[in-house]
Design a protein that fits this description.
The protein has two domains: about 70 residues, Winged helix-like DNA-binding domain superfamily/Winged helix DNA-binding domain (Arc Repressor Mutant, subunit A), CATH 1.10.10.10; about 160 residues, Up-down Bundle (Four Helix Bundle (Hemerythrin (Met), subunit A)). The longest helix is centred in the last third of the chain and has 34 residues. The chain is mostly helical. Helix 5 runs antiparallel to helix 6 and helix 5 packs antiparallel against helix 8. It is elongated. It contains nine helices and two strands, in the order αααββαααααα. The chain has a two-stranded antiparallel ribbon.
Length: about 240
């Protein structure tokens, strides 16, 4: 049986989803404890814990003697990413667009502001990335992402670095490529990925702002395109093999 804490988290997540989907609008009154207990099939204690959680996040506001209402100041609630919806294609595209906005600018600023020590550290990080991926039967994206973080750090803009660091748990996943594509396709990916990394790092070393921006954009878009296409390609190959 699930613990009460996990139940309260689930209830809070569902209410939050309704707020984000605008099924519960700013200023609207949340159903009573009794109504929520009946809806979710849980105790009043679970509901109270869920409400407290959402109040602490600024999504709900209690009014003495009146009940609990959706905050009218939702715009100031903390930034977050919906972990469940990020698995869908529209949300994946939205995440790519966010990364483009952050990382293309980050690469350009890095090229302008990087020190000699930064450039050396970034190249070393790239070489580590390549040594971890090439020849292995899977690629772990935390190594690739560490390179992106090193570039963001060298911008000397702490907000860029911290925002990218916030996205790391969402972007970084240890994807076993061998379970998605064949060995030849993986080698092709490694080759393209390595070439794109080299182009980014070389532009940063040359303090070529425009070149760094263009190379980072190409890298992000092409990487996303590969992973959007490969699962469909694999399924197509499986169907052909069964025929």
């Amino acid at each position: 049986m699930r613990k009460r804490q996990s139940l309260s988290v689930e209830v809070a997540a569902d209410i939050k989803k309704q707020i984000r989907a605008e099924k519960l609008l700013p200023g609207a009154q949340v159903p009573t404890e009794a109504q929520l207990c009946e809806k979710y099939g849980v105790s009043r204690t679970v509901i109270r814990e869920a409400i407290v959680r959402l109040c602490s996040e600024g999504l709900l506001t209690p009014r003495q003697g009146l009940g609990v209402f959706v905050s009218s100041e939702l715009s100031v609630a903390k930034f977050e990413v919906d972990w469940d919806s990020i698995q869908t294609m529209p949300e994946t595209v939205a995440l790519l667009e966010l990364r483009l906005a952050i990382e293309v600018e980050s690469a350009g600023l890095c090229a302008i502001r990087r020190t000699k020590a930064d450039a050396k550290s970034i190249r070393q990080c790239m070489e580590k990335t390549h040594s971890k991926s090439n020849g292995a039967n899977h690629t772990k994206y935390q190594y690739d992402f560490d390179l992106h973080l090193a570039i963001a750090s060298a911008t000397k803009n702490a907000y860029l670095y911290r925002l990218l660091l916030f996205l790391k748990p969402i972007v970084v996943k240890s994807i076993k490529l061998s379970s998605v594509i064949d060995d030849d396709a993986k080698r092709d990916f490694d080759k393209v990925n390595d070439e794109q990394h080299e182009a980014i790092v070389a532009a940063i070393e040359a303090q070529d702002e425009q070149g760094a921006r263009q190379s980072m954009r190409l890298h992000l878009v092409s990487s996303w395109s590969m992973f959007a296409i490969w699962p469909h390609r694999l399924e197509s190959e499986k169907r052909k093999a069964r025929q």
